[in-house]
Protein 1
Amino acid sequence: MDIKVNVREARGDSSVVDLAGEIDVYTSPKLKDAISNLIDRGVYNLVINLEKVRYIDSTGLGVLIGGLKRVREHGGSVNLVCTNPQIKKIFDITGLVMIFGIFDSEDAALRALV
Amino acid sequence: MNAPSRNTAVDVVELRIPAKAEWVSIARLAVSAVASRMQFSIEEIEDVKLAVAEALVHAIGRGGDRADLVCESLPDGLRIRVQNFGSPVPEAVNMAIVDEAAAGPLGVFLIRALMDSVDYDPRPGGNADLVMFKRLPA
């Protein structure tokens, strides 16, 4: 079990983080590193694409929340792309749908960045 | 809080993993196979997988060298016991985590939301097992 992380530059000062695989207690440090590297480079507007993510647990959620907190300190934001009902359910249960912008497409998530 | 089912166990599957993050996915696969065999729906299997993973993360966080998983296939559902062998925590603290899930760790909150019941079962020596139950659809 592993996670693949790919970072792409998007319009303006935004970046897209494509994730594939499973985000759990073992793989989430890789995601944390990728997000931290972007923020350290001054990228504060992120779209994280979860379309190819099959599984996420609370440690993965924690990494996303941590990233969101950091970018908000710089006036940025994190939007998610997610259509997988099982993944969306986790965000619903935890109330994180109220914190993250969750969109059906990358275009919509990029357009909604502040 | 609903008590876990007390029906006689039909089949028991046990798994012992090292208390290391890289082994949690193996436990997820195992419990997924058990739940699938019991005719849970795909969505329910995903619920059980996540709940077990969260319980194991919690157990590993306590330290120790291993975590044990016991799955009991009962006529009315799946009972899962997760045993940690790390630092004992006072029972009052364990119960506070379960009873005040909204204020507790996100993982425990998820377990409460995804399973039909969750409880701590104290063991001699100060540790406690996390016992959870997922009911089969009528």
Protein 2
Amino acid sequence: MKLRENIAFWFIGISFIGCQSMKEISLYGSSESQSGYDSFEPKIIFTDSQQDGVWGMKNTPCKTIHYDTIHSFYGKDHLHIQWKQTSDCKYLGMGFKWGNYKGKNLLPIMKDCAIEMMIRVDEGKFTKIPMFFGLTDYSGKQCMSKINILDIEGGFIDTTWRKVLIPLPSFNHEKKEVNLANIKELRLEFQREGDIHIDRIRIVPHDHNFKKTNTRFTKIFKEHPIQIGQGREYWWGVNSLYSTSFSFNDESIHERIYANISEKDWKEFGFGVYKWHRADISEIASSSAISFILDAKEMPKIQTTLVAYTGPKRRIQKTLNTSNYIQINDSSYQICIPLKSFAEFENFHWNTLKEIRFKIIEGSQFEMGDFKIIEFRGNPKKPNQWIRL
Amino acid sequence: MDKIVNITLLGVFLTFVNPLIAQVSQVEIRKESKTGYRLYKDGQPYYIKGAGAKSQFGLLAKSGANSIRVWSTNNEAFLDSAQHYDMTVCLGLYVRPERTGMDYNDDYAVKGQIEQLKTEILKYKDHPALLIWGIGNEVDLRYSNFKVWETIEELAQFIKKVDPNHPTMTVIAGVDPSKLYMIKKHCPSIDILGVNVYGSIENAGLNIRRYNWEKPYIVTEWGVNGPFEAKTTSWKAKIEPPNGIKAKQRRRRYEDLIYPDMEKCFGSYCFLWGQKQESTATWHGMFLPNGKPTEAVDVMQYCWTGKWPGSRAPSIQDISIEGKNWQKEHRLAPSTSTTLTIEYEKYNNQDIEINYRLFPEAFTNKIGGDRQESPEEISFQITKKSDNGITFTSPSKKGAYRIFAYIKNDKEQYSVANLPFLVE
């Protein structure tokens, strides 16, 4: 019995000490950000008509805003906003003077706070409201955000007061270059049609657990040679279900296709330069050429087209001539097409290269493959001379 | 006793619940050959004779259409109205394109959009008029972030889970090998490819095959060549063909390109059964801003039924200023007497009326059918009027203008043509 009492005593004692030494965990992230929130004074944006200033209350045929005293969530009254956008309305919006227009520094609270408000409607059930929230700085720049279903209490707005959060990180302040250290006001802007009640708008701590990545889908190439055309899934124009013009040579390490073109069959094929992402060869484009091997008894007449994702000139073409062919043996040629030899080389966005396509203008039987972008520093009009060197 | 209760409950279930279930269309895709597919609705083959439409559903059904396409879920009345006229709906889920400011690297925005659209899917999945889900419209237009396809796939997967009755489709602008690769790789839950093709309709069927798309497709927007494909004047005004030329183009495209491709094409939605400003007020719309039909409506009836309507709109074939037709540039001096002539087919109309209206040129940099503002009409002086033209005084103020000729019959069926001109 005594032993049991001892164990119990020590268990309670250790537990007590353990509790005392437990670290205090903030519900809203780091203690540093907590202090950011704590020291941020103008937490209240709107409570009621007596406490906080609002502009844009003037009613128009497109918009009416009034203080409604019936069924408020907090304070003496709340805002009832009704709007219907027509071509007569140039601007549908309103603003909160928020701390009587005193410049507010949101930087310390930007990462882990949100604007919280209570919203209800008179009838129906909505998952989105066509309204936008703007933070305006003292130079007039404004960043925007909107209601996200993920931060609507219960996932929808209906006739009961529901908490809605607009996380501060969701504002596009970087893109709009808004000075978050000197925010003047909060604006609401409306689109289409709506009828809502809003009450108690304030800043609250909020854990915004969403990432913004920087995925670009661009592959940068800075060195030669670049093996291209690898992977059949990135090719088009080779489809035996509909055409016998082109087929892959299964024995080749690098993709090679065999052409056997009849008069009315397909005459074009192509491939994504790098997995259909943007290939950025801008640093080496001026000293580059497309190269491939062509096996044929008679030289086919081929037109090459380069396609970019963006730019004023998204397609540039070149029809190959004898200077592009360097004979390797009786029936084998190396083809070299300097990029500078394409018309409008300068207007092509070499940082968004998408695709290379080939059109067979004349010729029926040949094999081509081992596509590369190689270094080329010769005369673009006489590539065969450079290759021979 | 238990058995009797069970049978009674089953009876109650069948009496009250089954009719509701039966109203939901069972839409399925069947593979009918090595490369061919067919769409079935409630067990019957279903070929889509459709239009992108938000109004005039009665006339649409009367003209022989059986389906409408809408671009978003913001108006349930479209589905109810389509059902009223015994038509189906290709229901668009509005996936925000990157060009409108959507950032597909922003998880918060992406997940919020997906969750919001899931509520729409649950709301409409059992609507009797629903035929196909259109997940996104032209999200690929001038995009750079391919992650948008993950959103499309997540929505398609969700539909597969909650709605086995309706196929999934995503709609792209034009036919391009990179886009088809992306959809094939990243969106395996997409059943049908939707293609919005205007000038590029000429090779759409061929390119879909060349670019290795193996599943079926629908021509989700088609019509005349768009403003983005049109020739422009040296002052960047788009040159729009007269209604008569456009009508012939529509008919040829339907008869030669869309309808013959029964192997993979489930049908089409012509653009646009309604009116909108896209460079001009008359470019794509088959109706005028006053709600009256143009000859494009007659052409679609012919395409869908093989018969012309009893009353046909007249048809403007050509419009000229000082003898130079619509394909040429027109430059005028300020406040100068100018002759405009039109050539038209009267068809079986006894009485026709011709009117002319002048507008400032509506330059725009909007793309992809994004909303454009209509310009304000300008008053101008007509000094002489004949059966096939007018003499008018050019504006005194220098600038770019566009003059419209409207011809209508006594049933208020119209044909329209316009010419841009520069006062310098």
